Amino acid sequence: MRTGIRQRFLATLGMTHKNMEITELTLTQILKALEEKEFSEEELNSAYVKRAQVLNAGLNAYVTVLEPYEGIPAAIKDVIVTKDVKTTAGSKILENFLPPYSATVIDKLESHNVSVLGKTNCDEFAMGSSGENSAYGVTHNPWDTGKVPGGSSSGSAAAVSGDMCVFALGSDTGGSIRQPASFCGVVGLKPTYGLISRYGLIAYASSLDCVGPIAKSVEDAGQVLEWISGPDGKDSNCSKSFTFSREKIKDGIKGLRVGVPKEYLGEGLEEGVKETIKSALSKLESLGAELIYVDLPHSEYAIAAYYIIATSEASSNLARLDGIRFGGNRDLFGAEVKRRIMLGTFSLSVGYYDDYFARAAKVRTLIIKDFEKAFKKCDIIAGPVSPTVAWNIGAKVNDPLAMYLSDIYTVPANLAGIPGISVPAGFSDGLPVGLQFLGPKWSEEKLLQVAYNYEQSAEWNKQKPNLTVSP
Amino acid sequence: MAKLSRLSQLPLTSKEEDAYAAQVEEILEYVEQLSKVDTSGVEPTFSPIDLKNVTRPDEPQAGLSQEEALKDAREVKNGLFVVKTISSKSS
Predict the structure, then answer these.
(1) Every domain of chain A and the residues it spans
(2) Which chain B residues have any C-beta within 8 angstroms of a chain A C-beta?
(3) Does B15 map to a domain?
(4) Interface with A, mutate which of B15, B27, B42, B70 (most A CBs under 10 A)
(5) The complex's ipTM?
(6) What single DSSP character describes residue A358?
(7) Chain A: residue nearest B5 by CA?
């Protein structure tokens, strides 16, 4: 770009003196820049491809990096099938799997001029909360490479955080978009169950799985959400679309009733995270929101209910990996996957079904009712995403139960089918902390609105991890 | 554990069986707490969406060709997936 044009371009972005790289730009900024012909799609792709290739050696965010030269380059979690592009689900069992079709969300993105930059690493079959359960190596957190990026959409969150893509798609069954987004300091949105077609998403737990965007900003997340939403006639649970309004999300939040669950700020929440969340809540108040305490009395049972329901559904879904029509032998499954298949098989077996699966399904109803009651008193619920910040790689691998307990604030949204978003809310011990907003079903617009207002006033998204790519 | 491994179609060595048994037991102990919840009169929820019997007109739509459907298979013969023999001898 010639100097004169570059300076005028930077001036448009309000950044006259900052030397902004193409890879630092958000989707929203890029769409505008392309429209105004500030750079070409080829330059855009070249910049991101190069950065992705160089940084991937240290971060292992991608399992596969492609070299698109047009479109908007996005990173896709490797549990979403892409036609003729290796799709592994983070597992050895699908090491050589070339899907004969693409997921609906991929077709939709491509119709909006998005290109697939690569397939991101993830916990095997989306089972994990750290990014350590992949058969393709651990993914590292761009803020501190000795720490986990979170999971299971580990690679997608790391890629967005490290500017290795313009935005990414992840999937969220128990928190797998929101938690890594929180750990990596980016925006992660789990939509209402039924907004996004799951056709082409390799199934983990069918009543909990949701595809969603991981992005550099709230506005970006809203745009991607619109692109990928809507019924396609192939997922019978997908019934609605989402229309993104840039104007609506910029409306102020004066008078918005924000519910804070008493159960979420108690024991178990790390002190540094608690302080960060409390500051964020004060910030919301300063923006005009009204904070109200709400009760979610069955919160303590959410993890138990989740791990029975999710593993039961998984045991059924993963039965299709028989090594006959696709994939390798079942002994190629990793330890966590085997554990969950066995737990699920047990919970569904004769003599145990009533005490485990059926009971968990009833507790699920109680959790849903908790939210319904709470949403009568407030418009949006706010709280932490995770009880801690990112932990050291290897610290929890030998304690599966400890790993499960870190999902305490995220699994309820999946059980209830409601949408949730994680936005950067600051740092504790130098690591990102995410603030979670939850809303009633189909309230994505309101979620984006409160998240946008918070994001713009708090400005945490202006900070980036310290990664260098030599020219 | 051996029964569970067979039911799950996950072949395990006896060493693996022991290792997994301990972990699975610990997790099952944790989920036991659900028995403390009063679920009398509560209907189970199996899906967060209320839709039932979603249908579409019975008209053929595009699908995978036979070639596409077979291309990732381990073994193909005469345009068919080759599967393990099911005999009266196998358990």
Answers:
(1) 10-462
(2) 4-5, 7-12, 20, 23-24, 26-28, 30-31, 33-35, 37, 39, 42-49, 51, 54, 56, 61, 64, 68-69, 71-74, 81-84
(3) yes
(4) B27
(5) 0.92
(6) I
(7) A342
Alpha-carbon torsion A278, A175, A392, A467, what sign?
negative
Q: Is A176 known to be catalytic? A: yes
Residues of chain B contacting residue A416, judged by C-beta atoms under 8 Å apart: 48
Which domain does B24 fall in, by range?
1-37
Measured CA angle at A263 (ends A258, A266), to 5 deg = 110
Domain boundaries A10-462, CATH class:
alpha beta
Phi, psi of A292 (to 5 degrees): -135, 135
Cis preceding linkage at A312, omega within 30? no
> Is residue A152 flagged as an active site residue?
yes
Cβ neighbours of residue A179 closer than 8 Å, sequence gap 6 or more: A129, A150, A151, A188, A385, A386, A406, A407, A410, A422, A434
**Taking a C-beta distance cutoff of 8 angstroms, is the pair A357, A348 a contact?**
yes
The position carrying tokens 């994001």 is: A455
DSSP line for A105-117:
HHHHHHHTTEEEE
CA distance A388 to A394: 15
Residue A392 DSSP class: B
The answer to whether residue B11 sits within a structural domain is yes
pLDDT tens for chain A, 471 residues long, are 444 444 455 444 444 333 479 999 999 999 999 999 999 999 999 999 999 999 999 999 999 999 999 999 999 999 999 999 999 999 999 999 999 999 999 999 999 999 999 999 999 999 999 999 999 999 999 999 999 999 999 999 999 999 999 999 999 999 999 999 999 999 999 999 999 999 999 999 999 999 999 999 999 999 999 999 999 999 999 999 999 999 999 999 999 999 999 999 988 899 999 999 999 999 999 999 999 999 999 999 999 999 999 999 999 999 999 999 999 999 999 999 999 999 999 999 988 999 999 999 999 999 999 999 999 999 999 999 999 999 999 998 888 888 888 999 999 999 999 999 999 999 999 999 999 999 999 999 999 999 999 999 999 988 999 987 655
Domain count, chain B: 1
Identify which of A443, A425, A420 has the alpha carbon closest to the alpha carbon of residue A249: A443
With tokens 């995220």, the residue in question is A410
Judge whether B26 lies within some domain.
yes
Q: Is B47 among the domain residues?
A: no
Cβ atoms of A280 and A249 closer than 8 Å: no
- pTM beyond 0.90: the answer is yes
